[in-house]
Amino acid sequence: MNSSCNHIEPINSRRDFLRKSAMGLGAIALNGLITPNLNAQIDRIATAKRIIYLFQSGAPSQMDLFDYKPTLQKMNGSDLPSSVLGDQRLTGMSAGQSSFPIAGSHFKFKQHGESGAWISDLMPYTAQIADELCFIKSMYTEAINHDPAVTFVQTGSQFPGRPSMGSWLSYGLGNDNENLPSFVVLVTKGKMGQPLYARLWGNGFLSSNHQGVQFRAGKDPVLYLSNPPGIDDADRKNQLDHLHKLRKHQFDQNQDPEIEARIAQYEMAFKMQTSVPDVVDVTTEPDYIFNLYGQDSRIPGTFAANCLLARRLAEKGVKFIQLYHQGWDHHGGLPQNIPNQCKETDQASAALIMDLKQRGMLDDTLVIWGGEFGRTAYSQGKLTATTYGRDHHPRCFTLWMAGGGIKKGISFGQTDDFSYNIASHGVHVHDFQATILKLFGIDHEQLTFKFQGRRFRLTDVHGKVVREIIS
Description:
Blueprint: H1 8-19, H2 25-45, E1 50-56, H3 70-74, H4 82-85, E2 109-112, E3 117-120, H5 124-128, E4 133-140, H6 146-155, H7 165-173, E5 183-187, E6 213-215, H8 233-254, H9 257-280, H10 287-293, H11 303-315, E7 320-325, H12 334-358, E8 365-370, E9 374-375, E10 392-393, E11 397-402, E12 410-412, E13 414-415, E14 422-424, E15 427-428, H13 429-439, E16 449-451, E17 454-456
Parallel strand pairs: 1-7, 1-8, 4-12, 4-15, 5-6, 5-7
Antiparallel strand pairs: 2-3, 4-11, 8-11, 9-10, 13-14, 16-17
Helix pairs in contact: 1-2, 8-9, 11-12
């Protein structure tokens, strides 16, 4: 049992008891005595202090970006062998096809860096940082449709209602900045694609102060944070003071811990009126930084601008920063559409790694790039000389990780010659989540929360740490 999290559940139960006695004074004392000790234990073994997750919604095609398969070119147009296809589940979008023609990638691959990583020419900037990256090419999941698959990666369950990964980390580790939330979400503005729901960064059954806070581009980065017309900061503070008294009176009557969470959220909102405008104001950034991230970084709400903002949030101690970029769902017209997706994300993703490194932050900042599942080696619909599409494929996909204690310049796991089945070292979604928690000094089996008579955890009932990728 990992000592870093031995106290998490007992602390929670004692808090519940002490909140109900002496008006919560015992809880205050307990927090002061035990929580610093818990944090100290975690700090001694953790390699990551914060995470920036660049989630590519819609599922990027691994064999067009990072999983080089020359066999697909050689057998382009041929039917995918039945021995490879097997009896795997297919979506309703391609299950009825009379044939499954192999679609070789239209894009060229080269090896890059001392690591010799194979990267498509769609990703020239990522290629420049190849030696900083750990590619996991053997990811797999059970979910075959977008919503359950994204929900699974983000919450550990295909079913809505569970806490998101950022909420679990907030619950387990707390907040390093009292003026900003520990969990912030940034969604690329104006992108179309598979829908994103607020429950993907929701707190589930955890206290509501652990939910993700979405920052938006524009005049009001956080909804309802600004004072309404006719109200100034003094009025708002006076209002909060009175609300605090009412909430305390309500808590004394029914002992609902969620009331304390609401009080904390009101207080955080008041502090954010000053802290948020400061952190989202990028006008102080020098020109070379905008040039590094690309010209889109000057346009609020773009993926590039959000990457730059993610670095600023990381500097301020925000623990979990989640970016979402939609538009990777290429069932048809992939050769025509995927280049634009890469253009929007490639430079800024690489710039984030370089920027963190030059500031001495990469060693303890974990960065992740990837989607919810992979794409099929065969073409969905008609394959022509100029175009093809790829269906959903949960059996294998690729993502990359960097910093935060991850080995750099390696590729872990292999797929078969068709990028259709895992050949070695499969990494399940729960293994991936267990490894992330490990980097933060947390034993994934010990970070639990009792709800409706059962102890839940991010990795639910299985998952193992992928120690081979940890430095």
